[in-house]
Amino acid sequence: MKHKTTHVIPVLWIVIFSIAFLVITGRFLYIQVTGEVANVSVTELAKEQRTNSYQIPAERGTIFDRNGMALAQEHTVYRMYAILDESYTVNPSEPKHVTDIDQVVDQIASIIGMEPSEMREILEEGREEDRFQVEFGNKGRELSQETKDKIESLQIPGINFREEAIRFYPNGMFASHTIGLTDKKEGEITGLNGVESHLNDHLTGIDGSISYQRDSYNVKLLNPKEIVNQPEDGDDVYLTIDQKIQTLMEDAMSEMVEAYDPARMSAVVMDAKTGEILAMSNRPSYNPNDLGDVENWYNDVISTPFEPGSTMKIFTLASAIEEGVWNPDEFYESGRYKAGDNITTISDHNGGEGWGPITYLEGIQRSSNVAAAKLAYEKIGSDQFLEYLKAFDFGQKTGINLSGEEPGNILFDYPIEQITTAFGQGTTTTPIQLIKAASAVANDGKMMQPYVIEKTVDRETQETIDVHNPEVVSKPISSETAAQTRDILETVITAEEGTGHNVYNLKDYSVAGKTGTAEIPDPNSDGYMTGHGNNIFSFLGMAPADDPELMMYVAVKQPELELTELGSAPTSFIFKNVMENSLRYLNIEPDKEEVEPVELIEIPDWRGKQTKEVTKTFEEKGIHYTTVGDGENVKKVSVSEGTKVLPNKRVLILTDQPKMPDITGWSRNDVLMLRDFVDLDVEWLGDGYVTKQSIKAGSPIQSNDYLMVEFAEPNES
Q1: Domain presence at residue 536
Q2: In a 3-state reduction of DSSP, which class is residue 684?
Q3: Does pLDDT of 708 surpass 50?
Q4: Strand 453-457 and strand 236-239: pairing?
Q5: What Rg, from alpha-carbon coordinates, does the chain have?
Q6: Are residues 489 and 611 in the same domain?
Q7: Which pTM value belongs to this model?
Q8: What is the rounded CA–CA span in Å between residue 74 and residue 81?
Q9: For the residues 387-395, what does the mean pLDDT come to?
Q10: Are 144 and 77 in contact (CB under 8 A)?
Q11: Is residue 266 part of a domain?
């Protein structure tokens, strides 16, 4: 029995090993023939294991103003990280990982503004947990080129940087609600609001890629079989916004925030002939480069309907003229008006006291609610008045090419609503609806489509992809009605009894317009808020009055007024500063005879001339210039020859030996002009005028040099 077992066991083992051998051999043959393991290609897996692949990010398109000034652009920053894994070092004499935590903490923490103890904790925890690398939170992100260079000069092993793109807004709190802002979603910059959101698909490019084969030490092979797919950058967008007019508006509004601390403000400037929005702003606003606590995300000009008040009387007046029921010399009894037994009595804005029997012309000049109510309810008739409101496109969106527009609502179901709509109560609208409707008055009856995006351009080919041209939406009134309406609105400014007299008149240009003092619904009752300043004070004006070039609407909600101050104080300051200076900037001929024309200076021909000769000529002509460098010959001038400029406009002269000028006291606009003129990489802190510059005056400069500038207001030390 024992002999038999002794023979069987070896045979059994031979069979088992034979079967195992056949299975393994068969498996190897299968893999060799098919090249697959578990449906995975061995060849492809090997390629993948020895191939490095990187994404080449596409650059997001730039948003420009109408004159090519960058308003939003991609900006390169850096993220710092530290490699802790010793295996990353191939040659011990040239370490590629962090060898000395104390050295990192002592030399780098202060540069990035990080607490040394926090940096040490991150590094030590990473080492204890055997992490390959660590990062340093917000302090280690979005580092400038200057900071990166400073850290790299320390030559600390294991400290590396990853290049990243962020969205940068060169002008800070400038048309923020219009331009919009972005966020990073899955590593891609995506628009959240404004133009950034509206044209996100155009602005976003298509990423490229690069791949090559490497060895086990991550070194590229001699024959790496490199494959490169170039990225396609996003399209550039040009707005109708004019940087200079927008700056005038931003400055005036910021000044009124300081003076009156209103709950809200909105303003918009439109080209009366084309519908192009030249400036648009709101308060509260935000700096998209440094958001902090944002009080207001909404572009109130297009997104926040409200009861407009007496600016609505413009359209009541125009409707009455068009309907043929306007008689400026006809008298009516001002003060109070009760249209029927079951209709609430309405009152004029002086507590219902009125001014006795006055003409309808004087009623419009005094902004009489009774005059507007009688015109709409008795003269025009409610049904016909509603048709005019619809013809002016109230109650619907304007269709401006921006995201987030909301329509107002025509409240017209009951007789009292039909009456109060005539003077801007009950019915709601937005500033953009008001200025669109008023364009019919300014533009001889032709109502213009407002738009803020002028064109989209392919960055690589500079081919225009899409362009928006001026568009007449409709003609709700005749040119004769428009002209007569403007004449009457001009008397609101010129007549002694006019609510805009000596308040909205400009020095050099005539103005046609209408004031507004709108009541604010009380959230704690069914009525309206009371008390001095608890209103929305507004003005809708156009100039020159006879043939308007520009229109402007400004509204200020609940300013903190002294008991003796009128609500028109902040609105008139904004309107007068922006409108007067914008008309001058656009070289619109003043229409007041007593005004002397501004003497412009023509830039002479400078080509092929020496610096001394050019500067002498500029001095003789009274041109305000700054020389960039001390070379003998002029390379270029910031303003083309033959161009006419104002005497106080700064002109830059670049010589063949460029050097940094002393820019102390320069405005932000001057610094931006220098940036574009010399092609510098500029960053700044603060607002106001230059107090410090990182490149010393007289130092040689060249294209792409980095310049840090600090601004401060004149009253700051």
Answers
A1: yes
A2: strand
A3: yes
A4: antiparallel
A5: 35
A6: no
A7: 0.75
A8: 22
A9: 97
A10: yes
A11: yes
